[in-house]
Design a protein that fits this description.
By secondary structure, the protein is α+β, with helices and mostly antiparallel strands. It has one helix and five strands, in the order αβββββ.
Length: about 130
């Protein structure tokens, strides 16, 4: 009887540790990039669409990337995105006048190995 309880306990502990290990995620390394490009989309969206809780208002702009440059010694997660439309998010209110304009933005990728989003830190019209 005692041996059976020990086996059940060990199996339960194994599966518990397995679940905890698979649920843990590693956050992305610190990064910041300066991008220049043209705003091809401007939208006000629910954070629910991006999988963010609690639900709140987000501003999403899509920028057609013309140049990128890493800030400091960090990685440039956007260097292979030149010539592509990439969505960026922010909680700060963005003016709709950005649409169709050339911009320069300081952005960062936030997330983990399962995914994430690019976030605007600062943006200016050119």
């Amino acid at each position: 009887m005692m041996r059976r309880l020990t086996v059940v306990f060990c199996v339960s502990l194994f599966f518990t540790l397995l679940m905890i290990g698979s649920c843990a995620s590693v956050p992305v390394i610190p990064n910041e990039t300066i991008v220049e490009g043209t705003v091809s989309e401007y939208a006000i969206v629910s954070s629910r669409l991006a999988g963010i809780q609690p639900e709140q208002v987000l501003y999403r702009i899509t920028i057609y990337i013309s140049t990128t440059k890493a800030v400091g010694n960090g990685p440039d997660f956007l260097r292979d995105k030149v010539g592509k439309d990439i969505p960026f998010y922010t909680k700060e209110k963005l003016p709709p006048q950005l649409f169709g304009r050339k911009v320069r933005a300081r952005v960062q990728f936030r997330g983990d190995e399962r995914g994430g989003l690019f976030w605007v830190r600062d943006i200016e019209m050119r």
